[in-house]
Specification:
- The structure is a single chain.
- With about 425 residues, this protein is an alpha/beta fold.
- It contains 14 helices and 16 strands.
- Strands 10-9-11-8-7-12-13 form a seven-stranded parallel β-sheet, with helices on both faces. The chain has a four-stranded parallel β-sheet with strand order 5-4-3-6, sandwiched between helices. The chain has a three-stranded antiparallel β-sheet with strand order 1-2-16, with no helix packed on it.
- α2 packs across α7, α5 runs parallel beside α6 and α10 packs parallel to α11.
Length: about 425
C-alpha cells in the first residue's frame, strides 16, 4: 500500500510529465514572456520576498545553523536583483530548442541532421539557497523542460513563495503551471521518491552538501548531473605578477566563503613565495582567515613575523571548508602544483597566476577540471558570470554536461532524417 508521500510524488510526477510535452512545443516568445513576467514580479515583490525569507533565516538561526549556512539562505536586495537580471539574461540567449544542425545528404539520398531537444522532466534537489528556485526554474523553462523542485526544509517559505511567482509567469504566457512544481513537504522521504521515479523524471540535479550528494549517488536510479566537492586551487607561478596574484587570490578566498567556487588551497612556487606570501597572508589574517600551512610556508611567514599559523594536516588538502580557513602549500614548480591538484582536487575549478604563456598553456591542457583559469579568480566559475544567465548546477562529470550547466546542458540531441521517398536496398 502506497504512503501519502508516495501518492503526492506520483501525482507531481504525472503532472510534470504531462506539462513537459507542452513545454517542448512552447514558442520562444511564450517562454521569454513568462521569464520577463517573473522578473517584473520579483522586483515588484522584493520587499515581500525579503520578509518571507527572514522567517526562514530566523528559523535557521534558532536551529543553530552555522554562519555559512545562514549566508547561503539569506536573500539580500542584491541577491533578488541578481535573480531578476539572470532572468533577463536568459531571455536574451538564443533558444536552442528545435534547432537542426546542417543537414547532410547521404549516399542513399536521405538528408541527416541533429535536432536540439529538451531533456523532459528535471528534478532538482537543493539545500539552503532559495535563489536556486528562480535560477533553476528559469533555465528549465527556457530550455523547454518541466521541473520538480525540492528545496531544503530550512527555505520552505521562501521557495513556496517564489514558486507562486513562477507559476503566475507561466500562466500569463499561456504555459502550464505544472511545468514548475515545488515539493511543499519537508518529509525527507520525498527525496527518496524523486530519485527513483524513472517513469516521470529524466534527470536529477542535486545542489547541496557532500552528505546529500553522497546519499543520492548511492540511492538514485534516475541519472544525475552533479559535483560532490568544490576543492578549488590557485597556483601562483614563479612568473606571476605580484600585485595581480595578491588581488586575485584575495578575491578567490574572501569575496565570499560559502560558495563552492571559493579557493580552498593556495599553492605558491618557492621562487616567489618570499615576495608574495607576506603581503597576501597579512590580508588574510586581517580578514580573520585561519591559515593552515605546510612547513616551507610556515618558515617563510614566521621569518616575516607571522604568528597564529596552524600546521596543515593531510585531511586539510582534502577539505572543502566553505569558511574563512585556507590551506597553503609552497611547491617547487608547476609539476608539483599540478600533481597536488590531481591528487587532492575535486575537478571543479583550478587557476594559475602567471605571465608565462608556456606555463599557462601547460596548466590549461593538463589540469583535468571542469573550469581551468589563467590570471582570474576561481569565483568566476558561475553560470551568471559565464553568460549563461544562471546555472542549474556545476558538473564535474565528463558525460553530457561539464562545468556550470546552462541551457545547452539541459538539452539533448536526436537524429532527424529528411527523405524524399527513399527506401533501403
Amino acid at each position: 500500500m502506497s504512503s501519502p508521500i508516495q501518492e503526492m510524488m506520483q501525482d507531481i510526477g504525472m503532472r510534470a510529465r504531462a506539462a513537459s510535452r507542452a513545454m517542448a512545443r512552447a514558442s520562444s516568445e511564450q517562454k521569454n514572456q513568462a521569464l520577463l513576467h517573473i522578473a517584473k514580479v520579483v522586483r515588484q515583490q522584493a520587499a515581500e520576498i525579503q520578509k518571507i525569507n527572514q522567517v526562514d533565516v530566523e528559523r535557521a538561526k534558532g536551529n543553530g545553523q552555522d554562519p555559512a549556512f545562514v549566508d547561503r539562505l539569506t536573500m539580500s536586495p542584491k541577491t533578488i536583483e541578481t535573480m531578476a537580471l539572470g532572468l533577463e539574461q536568459i531571455v536574451s540567449l538564443d533558444d536552442p530548442i528545435g534547432k537542426i544542425s546542417a543537414l547532410q545528404k547521404q549516399a542513399s539520398g536521405i538528408e541527416l541532421g541533429q535536432m536540439r531537444v529538451p531533456l523532459g522532466v528535471i528534478g532538482i534537489i537543493y539545500e539552503s539557497r532559495p535563489n536556486v528556485t528562480i535560477d533553476a526554474a528559469a533555465l528549465c523553462l527556457k530550455s523547454g523542460n518541466a521541473v520538480i523542485l525540492r528545496g531544503g526544509s530550512e527555505a520552505i517559505d521562501s521557495n513556496t513563495f517564489l514558486a507562486q511567482i513562477i507559476q503566475e509567469g507561466l500562466a500569463a504566457a499561456g504555459l502550464p503551471r505544472d511545468a514548475v512544481q515545488v515539493v511543499t513537504t519537508t518529509d525527507r522521504s520525498a527525496v527518496g521518491q524523486m530519485i527513483t521515479m524513472t517513469q516521470y523524471i529524466d534527470v536529477i540535479v542535486p545542489r547541496g552538501g557532500k552528505s546529500l550528494i553522497a546519499r543520492l549517488m548511492d540511492e538514485a536510479r534516475v541519472p544525475m548531473i552533479k559535483h560532490l566537492d568544490g576543492i578549488c586551487h590557485t597556483y601562483i607561478d614563479a612568473d606571476a605578477d605580484i600585485a595581480m596574484a595578491v588581488k586575485v587570490c584575495d578575491n578567490a578566498k574572501t569575496q565570499r566563503y560559502a560558495p563552492c567556487n571559493a579557493m580552498e588551497t593556495l599553492l605558491v612556487n618557492q621562487d616567489i613565495a618570499q615576495k608574495v606570501l607576506p603581503t597576501l597572508c597579512k590580508i588574510y589574517q586581517d580578514k580573520g582567515v585561519e591559515l593552515r600551512v605546510d612547513g616551507l610556508t610556515r618558515k617563510t611567514l614566521e621569518a616575516n613575523g607571522f604568528q597564529n599559523l596552524v600546521d596543515a594536516k593531510e585531511e586539510d588538502w582534502q577539505t572543502e571548508y566553505l569558511a574563512p580557513i585556507l590551506s597553503i602549500k609552497t611547491v617547487a614548480n608547476i609539476d608539483e602544483a599540478m600533481n597536488h591538484i590531481e591528487q587532492y582536487g575535486s575537478k571543479h575549478t583550478d587557476a594559475i597566476i602567471t605571465n608565462n604563456k608556456a606555463q599557462a598553456d601547460r596548466f590549461l591542457r593538463e589540469v583535468d577540471s571542469a573550469s581551468v583559469m589563467v590570471n582570474a579568480s576561481t569565483r568566476f566559475a558561475d553560470g551568471f558570470e559565464y553568460g549563461l544567465g544562471a546555472e542549474i548546477g556545476i558538473s564535474n562529470d565528463k558525460l553530457h554536461a561539464r562545468g556550470p550547466v546552462g541551457l545547452d546542458g539541459l538539452t539533448s540531441l536526436k537524429y532527424v532524417v529528411m527523405g524524399h521517398g527513399e527506401i533501403r536496398t
